[in-house]
Write a structure and sequence with these properties.
about 25% helix; Rieske Iron-sulfur Protein; alpha+beta; about 30% strand; 19 strands; Naphthalene 1,2-dioxygenase Alpha Subunit, Chain A, domain 1; 10 helices; 9-stranded mixed β-sheet; 6-stranded antiparallel β-sheet
């Protein structure tokens, strides 16, 4: 159980907060590139900052503060130019670095005598997604996870804005026991309310498997999560799923396919859940630049939650505790070992950054960043960094 103050420290992502300062050391996806095809300007909120993402006429990406420096009008309604973005109100134009490079109604000397700029952040494209970095310079390398780097793969992504704090979405990733119940027994219960035939078909194909044990292994970039139901040769145990700190999960990718989950803190009470999938194909393909994207709703039109899908079930357990889970009212058990580990890891890395250090999984070596794979069997710690929980 956390105190209310500890809970607040772990959940607040604003600039100048301990967690906000830690999370700003990393890159986050903020859009699929295809979302700028029909309209090259998109409102983005990341870590509590209201921003505008755009692609100008020269094909360059920019990410700047939403408000124009002149009269604070939103640049979401701006005009993309051959270079930069122009405010709709009085035509002030900004380049990708946030520098105001044109003020049509002002004297020509005003730009040099009274330079004006707005906040701008780094953006890069990879795997059909657009990533942003909001932290201090020098910026680290954008991690080139293998499924984002494959040039012969077909990419697809879907996402959902969840109206709750990022941490409760992330903690669900460290709770393998919920798969048996939420996505197994509860799923069958929901289907049975529709028809017994649906429930029987589901149970025949996806019978809930009781987990015999779960384990968590620390490695230099995060944590490997393992779960065992039958044999230690199962991929879920032998390979596991990898958290690349702080909020990226690689789900056991093979050489031909893989999935990554990105948990993106929008602000203190909203989170973007993004699933990116890559599949290599046998036919010759040109280099892929595009990732098809669609939004996945978590609620029906009448406000009820979509509990008839695995995503809807995860959405339900994220939002029903409230916008920010009151962790001072929890009663954790031994099956929550992964959640306890993750909270401690966050606290350790916050303290490290507070002391002027660099947290884990900040990439600065070009060679090591070429194509990041899941750690191979035996490469993660089975010593002090290994923790197992046995069940009956």
């Amino acid at each position: 159980m956390l105190t209310a103050q500890e809970d607040s420290t772990l959940t607040g992502v604003g600039s100048g907060t301990p967690m906000g300062d830690l999370l700003r050391r990393y890159w986050y996806p903020i859009a699929a590139a295809e979302q700028l095809e029909d309209k090259p300007i998109k409102a983005v909120t990341l870590l509590g900052e209201s921003l505008v993402l755009y692609r100008d006429g020269g094909g360059r990406l920019g990410l700047v503060a939403e408000a124009c420096a002149h009269r604070r009008v939103s640049l979401v309604y701006g005009i993309p130019e051959n270079e930069g973005i122009r405010c709709a109100y009085h035509g002030w134009r900004y380049d990708a670095d946030g520098k105001c490079i044109e003020q049509p109604a002002e004297d020509d000397s005003s730009l040099s005598q009274n330079p004006v700029s707005i906040q701008a952040y780094r953006v890069e494209e990879l795997g059909g997604l657009i990533f942003a970095y909001l932290g201090p310079n020098p910026a680290p390398l954008l991690p080139r996870y293998n499924l984002l780097s494959w040039e012969d793969a077909v990419w697809e992504a879907n996402g959902s804005v969840i109206p709750c704090n990022w941490l409760q979405v992330m903690e669900n990733m460290f709770d393998p026991i919920h798969v048996e119940w939420l996505h197994g027994r509860f799923f069958a219960h929901v289907l049975a309310q529709r028809s017994e035939e649906q429930a029987e078909t589901f149970l025949a194909r996806h019978a809930p498997t009781h987990m015999k044990k779960i384990a968590f292994d620390r490695f230099e970039h995060g944590v490997i999560q393992r779960s065992l139901s039958k044999s230690e040769e199962e991929p879920n145990w032998k390979t596991g799923d990898a958290l690349f700190f702080p909020t990226t999960m690689l789900l056991g990718p093979s050489k031909v396919s893989g999935s990554a989950i990105f948990i993106v803190p929008i602000d203190d009470t909203h989170t973007w859940f993004l699933l990116h999938m890559a599949n290599r194909v046998d036919v010759q393909l040109p280099k892929q630049e595009r990732c098809s994207y669609f939004d996945v709703p978590g609620a029906n039109d009448d406000g009820t939650l979509k509990t008839g899908t695995a995503h809807g079930q995860d959405y339900m357990v994220a939002v029903t505790p409230g916008e920010i889970t009151p962790r001072n009212k929890e009663h954790l058990g031994r099956s929550d070992a992964g959640i306890v580990l993750y909270r401690q890891l966050l606290q350790d890395q916050m303290a490290l950054v507070g002391d002027g250090g660099e947290p884990i999984n900040v990439r600065r070596n070009e060679k090591e960043n070429q194509c990041i794979e899941l750690p191979k069997v035996g490469e993660t710690s089975m010593g002090n960094g290994h923790m197992e929980v046995l069940f009956c």
